[in-house]
Amino acid sequence: MRIQNYKANYHTHCHLCNHAIGTVEDYVVKAIHNGFQAIGISDHAPLDFLEERSLRMSVDDYPKYIKELKHAIVHYLEYILIYRSLEIEYFPFLHEHYQDLLTQLDYLILGQHYIQDGDDLKSVFKIRSLNELKIYKDTVIEAMNTGYFKILAHPDIFLINQGALSQEILDMCEEIIDVAIENNVLLELNANGLRKKKHKEDGIWYPKYPRNEFWEIVSQKKAKTIISADAHDPNHLVDEAMDEAYELARHLSLEVEEELVLD
Ligand SMILES: [Zn+2]
Ligand SMILES: [Zn+2]
Fold it and tell me: What is the Å distance from ligand 2's center to 12 Cα?
C-alpha cells in the first residue's frame, strides 16, 4: 500500500555518473507515470580532480548530460516540469565554476562527499574524529553562505560513524541547521540513506542515516526540509524508502516542502 502520494523529486541521478542506471528520459518517464508534477535531475557533477577517486560523471560526458536534459525537456514539456541540476561538493577555489554552472542550470545541490583535511582529501564516509566533524560542519556552512546551493543533501551524513552524539556534536548539528535557515537552504531528508541501511560496500557495512538526533533539532527549529529519493534507479522515485522517509518526517513533525521554489 502506498502511504504517500509525492508529486516531485529534486535529487535524481542517471547512468552518466557510472554508478546509477537509466537515462534522464527513463527517470522522467517513470515520474510522469507516477503522476509527478516536477522532477529535478541532479547527477554527480564532473570535477576533474575527483575523477580518479570517485565514481562520478566525467568531464567529457557533461555535454551528453546537457543534451539528454534538453531532449527530455523538449519531449515531455506538456507532462512534467523538468529542472536541470547537479549534485556537487563545495571547494572554495571553485567559485567561478559554480557561478558558471548556475548560468546553465536551474539550481545546485550541495552534496559534500569529501572534506579537505590539510593536504588530505577525505571521504565523508570515513569521518570519525571531532576535528573531521568540525571540518565538515565548517565546509557546509561556508558553502551555504555563498548562496550557490538550494538544497543541502544528506546534511547528517557526517555522523555516519558516530555512536551516541555528545553535546559538542549536537551543537555542530545546530550550527548547520541555523545557517541553512538563514540562507533559505532546504535540508534534505535522504531516502537513499534508508535504502542503504543494509548496504555493504568495499567490505564495509554502512550504518544508517538519516540520524534522528539531527532531525529532532530540525523539527524544533522548524527548518525547511525536503525529502529526496536521491534516485540511482528509476524505481527509487517511488519505493519503500520514500514511504519510510515521509513516515519519518511525519513522525518528527518536519516542515516538508513539496515544491522547490526557485528565484
Ligand atoms: Zn551517487
Ligand atoms: Zn545524490
Answer: 7
